[in-house]
Design goal:
Elements: E1 4-15, E2 18-29, E3 33-37, H1 44-51, E4 59-64, E5 67-68, H2 73-79, E6 80-82, H3 95-106, H4 112-118, H5 134-145, E7 152-156, H6 164-179, E8 183-187, H7 191-197, E9 200-205, E10 208-213, H8 215-224, H9 238-246
Parallel strand pairs: 3-8, 3-9, 6-7, 7-8
Antiparallel strand pairs: 1-2, 1-4, 4-5, 9-10
Helix pairs in contact: 5-6
Bound molecules: adenosine-5'-diphosphate (ADP) and magnesium ion.
């Protein structure tokens, strides 16, 4: 039995008199990639930011690696990795300088080149953040979540707006991070991505979890209701054409 690393019990959050999160409960297992899916405004980011200790909740109980969020938020901060808003990247600094800056904030010693290597950005060490492509920016931003060697990282729509190759490259990176033992919580609007990447997903709608299981089980459940997809006549789709023609390798330079 896999160990539970996060528990969320009956979480509520309101902004004024608008209820954004209405009694959400779920567990995340150690070492899994857990997806939060749902339409815009469903309450995904709110839920993540509460677990990340960045936002207050109205009520509910949250534990992260055995730590109660109400009692030990600072201890929780030390064992999690959170992507910063990109506006937080000082425009005048290059990637190595930014890593030194963040490492200083965390009081951690890191080898910037080794960290950049791990996200395939060694060549960009002397570049500024704004000089990176969309995919490179996301990879750098994920690298910064790893500085404090966290047990859990939170990725809120890391692949939104990326081209198909950059998206696949990020999947490899996320799998790589997980294979080293880090638990990953991710939100995405791409269902193909959730299907190949996530061990389990929770589907949130209007502040409530309406389904939670493995992608495979959710699909089987739907099929068991008699659902049938309109027959696919073609053996490939336009994304297959795109990847076939342009290659799977990175094309960012
Ligand atoms: P998601 O990430 O699933 O798109 P959010 O958690 O960002 O959803 O938002 C959930 C709901 O809460 C939305 O209706 C949003 O407009 C509202 N909301 C989010 N942040 C705030 C805020 N700071 N003040 C008021 N309403 C907010
Ligand atoms: Mg969001």
């Amino acid at each position: 039995m896999q160990k539970t690393i996060i528990t969320v019990q009956d979480l509520y959050k309101n902004y004024g008199n608008f209820e954004a999160v209405k009694g959400i409960s779920f567990d995340v297992k150690e070492g899994e990639i857990f997806g939060l899916l749902g339409p815009n405004g469903a309450g995904k980011s709110t839920t993540l930011e509460i677990i990340e200790t960045l936002r207050d909740k109205a009520s509910g109980k949250i534990t992260v690696d055995g730590l109660d969020l109400d009692i030990s938020p600072n201890e929780i901060k030390k064992i999690i990795g959170v992507q910063l808003q990109t506006s937080g990247y000082y425009p005048g600094l290059n990637l190595v300088e930014l890593i030194h800056l963040f490492a200083g904030l965390y009081n951690e010693h890191v080898d910037p080149m080794q960290l950049l290597d791990s996200v395939n950005l060694r060549d960009k060490a002397k570049n500024k953040f704004k000089e990176l492509s969309g995919g490179q920016k996301q990879r750098f931003s994920i690298a910064t979540t790893l500085i404090n060697k966290p047990k859990i990282i939170f990725l809120d729509e890391p692949t939104t707006g990326l081209d198909p190759q950059a998206r696949r490259n990020l999947w490899d990176l996320i799998r790589d991070i997980r294979s080293k033992g880090t638990t990953v919580i991710i939100t995405t609007h791409y269902m193909d991505e959730a299907e190949v990447l996530c061990d389990r997903v929770a589907i949130i709608d209007s502040g409530k979890i309406i389904a939670l299981s493995t992608p495979d089980q959710l699909i089987d459940d739907l099929v068991a209701t008699g659902f049938e997809r309109p027959k696919e006549v073609k053996q490939a789709n336009l994304e297959d054409v795109f990847i076939h023609l342009t290659g799977k390798h990175l094309r960012e330079e």
